[in-house]
Each structure stands twice: as C-alpha cells, then as structure tokens.
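Hey, resending since the last one bounced:
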Amino acid sequence: MSQVMKKQGQRGGFVLGLIVGLLLGLAVALGVALYITKVPIPFINKVPQRTAEQDAEETQRNKNWDPNAPLAGKAAAKAASGLVSGLPAAAPRAEPAVVLPPAAEAAPAQLPPPAALPVPKLPEKALDKKLDAKATAAAAASAAATAAADPFIYFVQAGAFIRTEDAEQQRAKLALQGFIAKVLEREQSGRTVYRVRLGPMDSRDEAEGLQRKIEAAGIEANLIRVQR
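The structure tokens again:
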C-alpha cells in the first residue's frame, strides 16, 4: 500500500514539475518577445521615419514651386549685370602715343602738287548704288566682327510658367505692347516649363536695350545668354 502511494506521489510531482516548467518557458518566451519588439532592428530603424508634418511641408513646397526662382531678380540683375552675361566690363583702351620728329629732322620741303586731273562724274543712280553696296558690305563686316568677338547670343526672357495658358497670355500681353515673343518649352527641375523669350540677338547692348523697353512697359524681364 505504501509503495502505491509513493508511486502516485512521484507521478503527481512529475506532472506538477512539468506544468511549472511549461509556465516558466512561456514566461521566458514572452519576455524575449517583448524585448525584441522594443529593441530597434539593425539596418531598418536606423533610417529616420518621415512625419506627417514633413510630408505636409513637402506638399506645400511643391505646390508653391516657382519656375522663375533660378533667375536673378530685377534688382539683383541690375546690381550684378556683369554676372548675368558673364562678360567683364571692357576696360578703356589707352591711345597710342604719337611721336613727332624733332625740328632738326623735319620733312623736306614739299614740291608743288601736280596739276589736278579731272575726275569723271558718275551718274546719280550709279553713285547711289555704289554707296548702298558699300554700306551693306560695311554692315556685314561689322556683324561678322561682332559674332567673332562675342561667342554668345542673347535673349530677353519675360517669364517662365508651368502652364502653357499662362505663357500664351504673357506672349499676347507683349504683342499688345508691340513686342514679338516666342513660347519655348523645356524640362527644368523635373517639370515642363514654358518660357516666353524675345530674340535671339547678336549684341548684348541690343538685348539690354530691348530689356529696358520691356521693363518700361511694366513687364519684368531678364537677360539670358546662350553659347553659339
């Protein structure tokens, strides 16, 4: 009888120990799970998480994006006109010194001029054609010299817009003032920008004069240079 009771006691102790072990195991597993969830995961939680405020600021910044921001303002452009075109102001040229011969080495006495030969007179029409041809040749030579000296061409930009309707409205406004402009499309900062430009012009002085006329009409304009 005592042996049976002893066996039952051992069996009951074994079951109780098994239950206690299971409970301890579950408690340890629960503690490990809680520790893992609170500890940051390597290579994942190191990246900062974006907040709702940051997303709202980025949305507002994209909404108020201005395509004219890269261009210098009106006051800055006038204060640094040399930086707009990238060309330094031309320094005044010194006149070459004229060396006169000494009095002792004066030129010999001049001989009396020979009798003047009669100059044949050309008809007025032929003379006018000859003068026109000379003027045209001089203008072409001047334009070629200017192009060779200045490696840039110039535009006057009257604004850049993200909607083609706004660009066309600006072009129509310029046309009412007597200025002929074009709408040019280009990708800028990942967006399509429509630029209203007048030109091209070979001379910076000509472009600056046109810019002053447009600003006098109440329209803000910027000077743009492009490599030939």
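The radius of gyration is 44 Å.

Sorry for the duplicate.
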